[in-house]
Amino acid sequence: MKNRYEGGDLVVESLINLGVKQVFSVSGGPLNSIYHAAASNKLPIVHTRHEAAAGFMAEAVSRMTGTPGVAMVTLGPAVTNSVTTAFMAQMAGSPLLIIGGQGNTRDFDRGAEMQAKHVRIMTPVTKFAARVLHTERIPEYIEMAWRHMWAGRPGPVFLEIPIDVLSALAEQQAPATGVMTRSANLSPEAAREIETALAKARRPILVIGDEARWEMTSGLDPADLRQAIERHGLPFTSLRHARGLVDERHELCLGPACVFAHKSLQQALKEADLVILLGHHMEADLDFGASVSEGAVVVQCYPDVEYLGRNRRSDIATLAGVKPVVELLLGLAPIEIDRAWVEGA
Fold this sequence. Notes:
By secondary structure, this protein is an alpha/beta fold. The protein has 2 domains: 4-171, 3-Layer(aba) Sandwich (Rossmann fold), CATH 3.40.50.970; 188-344, Rossmann fold (3-Layer(aba) Sandwich), CATH 3.40.50.1220. It has 14 helices and 14 strands. The chain has helices at 7-17, 32-40, 51-65, 77-80, 83-92, 118-122, 138-150, 163-167, 188-200, 210-214, 222-232, 263-271, 322-331, 339-344; strands at 4-6, 23-25, 45-47, 69-73, 96-102, 128-131, 156-162, 169-171, 204-208, 236-238, 253-256, 274-278, 297-301, 316-318. Strand 6, helix 7 (138-150) and strand 7 (156-162) form a beta-alpha-beta unit. Helix 1 crosses helix 2. The longest helix is centred in the first third of the chain and has 15 residues, at 51-65. The radius of gyration is 23 Å and the shape is elongated. The chain starts with a strand and ends with a helix.
């Protein structure tokens, strides 16, 4: 019975335990231990001809499935070719793990071929970047990176694992586990404030943001979101990753949430007396909040305190996820809305 494992085995076992279904990579010797383990454990590897392609394909997985994508690259220019991918995932708020190789630890700072300061290079474009120096700690670092990737607003993370750390043997370790559950709870006080704001509103608009997409991994059902909208007759618009969660052909949909592309949305936001920003912040597509009437009550629900009230004051700002707000809406009696305004919006 096998009781000592290569570092590559620990990487693959951890990824499988975290629910990863495939990885994207440009083949290279520094990652051979991972490739062998992937073949043995039937973890598919999609090989590309450029590291940026591997990264963008992995990031597309996160957009399409709501679960993190994983890219693996070798070292030196392979890592620098991944910078743009990480930057785009950072800007988009997409969960992405990039694993980079490195030369043998015994050759650090000796001018070995293609060795570079990978962690220093990747730090500005990721939420977390670290080097793994001990084989037995590989699962620990993967779990650590996974936590950073999901904490608050999602984003890219980077791990560098040298050749000898990957190929060395270690005692069997517990694989990394999926430690992040999204959808922060809604406090009773915030729930009462939202209920009061809804009761007073006659021209409300619901803006659905990225967090709705990621909370599908924690049980948010888009059908519940649609039902909440229909229960109250809420006009809605969707941002970025949230687009398509509720069919944009729905009669209550105001179109994609880009005010520069939709004059009707511009007008509706200027006339609205309540804007519920569900799982997002006042970013560029909303003209940083300038698109919303000064007299409107703004409710913002987002699980990252850094983005609460960003660019535009929120009258009700709560460190909460999307799912609890959807559940609140489903439990309230239908609100009274200016139907003539809705039909004209």
